C-alpha cells in the first residue's frame, strides 16, 4: 500500500497530476457552483500531500462527474482522463511519500505463540 522508490515517486506524480487536472477542469467549466471551490482547494491540498488519499480521490471523481455535467466540448478528454486517474489513485493508495504513509505506514506486529514462551 505504501511502495517506496520509483513506484512511490510515480504515485506522488499521479497525486499531483490529479489535483492539477481537477483545478484545470474547474477553470474550464462555464458555470461554477459556489460550493465547488471551497471543496476543491482542500481536496487538492490533501491529494498533493497524500493525506486521506483514497477519500480525496473519491471526492475528485465526484467533483469531476459534477464538472462533466457542465463542460465544453474541448474539455471532455481532460474530464475523462482525470476521472480514470483519480479512480486508479483511490484503488492504489498514496505511496510511501505521503502523510498517509507517515500516519498509517507499515508496522511490525509481533504475535506470541504458545510455543515461544512458558505458559501454564
Structure write-up:
- The protein has 5 helices and no strands.
- The longest helix is centred in the N-terminal third of the chain and has 24 residues, at 5-28.
- It has 120 residues and is mainly α.
Name the descriptors:
120 residues; mainly alpha; elongated
How would you characterize the largest beta sheet? none
The total number of structural domains is 1
Report the uncertain regions. none
Structural class: mainly alpha
Mean pLDDT: 83
Strand content: under 5%
Our measurement of the CA-to-CA distance between the termini, rounded to an integer number of angstroms, reads 39 Å
Order of helices and strands: HHHHH
Overall number of strands? 0
Counting DSSP H or I runs of 4 or more residues, the number of helices is: 5
Envelope shape:
elongated
Radius of gyration: 19 Å
Helical amount: 55-70%
Topology:
Blueprint lengths: L4 H24 L7 H14 L3 H17 L6 H17 L6 H6 L16
Helix pairs in contact: 1-2, 1-3, 1-4, 2-3, 3-4
Structure described in brief:
65% of the residues lie in helices and 0% in strands.
Amino acid at each position: 500500500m505504501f511502495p517506496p522508490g520509483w513506484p512511490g515517486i510515480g504515485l506522488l506524480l499521479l497525486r499531483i497530476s490529479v489535483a492539477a487536472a481537477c483545478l484545470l477542469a474547474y477553470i474550464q467549466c462555464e458555470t461554477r457552483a459556489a460550493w465547488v471551490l471551497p471543496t476543491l482547494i482542500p481536496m487538492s491540498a490533501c491529494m498533493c500531500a497524500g493525506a486521506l488519499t483514497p477519500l480525496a480521490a473519491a471526492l475528485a471523481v465526484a467533483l469531476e462527474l459534477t464538472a462533466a455535467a457542465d463542460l465544453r466540448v474541448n474539455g471532455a478528454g481532460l474530464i475523462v482522463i482525470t476521472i480514470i486517474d483519480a479512480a486508479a489513485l483511490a484503488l492504489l493508495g498514496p505511496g510511501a511519500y505521503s502523510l498517509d504513509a507517515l500516519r498509517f505506514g507499515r508496522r511490525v506486529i509481533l504475535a506470541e505463540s504458545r510455543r515461544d514462551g512458558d505458559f501454564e
